[in-house]
Amino acid sequence: MRAPRIYQNIKRNVLNHPELKIQISCVLTSITAGCIEDLVKEWGPIARGGIIFDFFTPVTNLDEALWLNWKERDRLIDQILALKRKYPGTINMLDSTLDLMRSKKAKRVTDNCEFRLRAFALGSTGETKGKCMMGDNADCDRCGCVVPFHMATLSNRRLMIKEGIKSLLASN
Ligand code: SF4
Which residues line ligand 1 (CB under 6 A)? Predict the structure, then answer.
């Protein structure tokens, strides 16, 4: 989706800095949704900080062609969970976070977005970006940014205990 050669430049930079624990963040859109397993296979061995996925978030008055509908988003969440099992250690997202991003649960999280309530984002010249990193016009009801869902997981004691038990069982 980016300009020519950017992909190769990013990859070269990552390969040239094995001392850094770089995390790859991929936004899933109507264009990239079909590439998830290819991306995990290609970047899993070199992204030492793991891979995370977001979904495209529509912004008011801007083109929505990249938005995935909820049915497709739910299907991709199932795929990412399956890929976590198939390629252990590559996708650095908690199962509970992915689960909160599903169509039936997302609005409860975004209505109380902890990023909006507790954090702030700055633009490249230091100006504040409004309610979040995507600016004031981002559509909270269709937010695909992983951050509010990850924050909601971390602040939910029941989910964190569940994740802790899962990780203990996996290490035994
Ligand atoms: S669009 Fe921004 S403010 Fe709204 S839920 Fe998403 S991260 Fe939070």
Answer: 57, 110, 113, 115-116, 131-132, 134, 138, 140, 143, 145, 147-148
pLDDT band at 172 (very low <50, low <70, confident <90, very high): confident
Q: Is residue 1 part of a domain?
A: no
Give the CA count within 13 Å in the CB-facing half-sphere of 29. Answer: 14
| Assigned domain for 92 exists | yes
Tokens of 104: 């039936």
- Nearest-CA neighbor of 76 among 24, 112, 142, 27? 27
- Distance from the alpha carbon of residue 147 to the mean position of ligand 1, in angstroms: 9
Question: Is residue 18 assigned to a domain?
Answer: yes
The total domain count for the chain is: 1
pLDDT attached to residue 2: 80
pLDDT band for position 94 (50/70/90)? very high
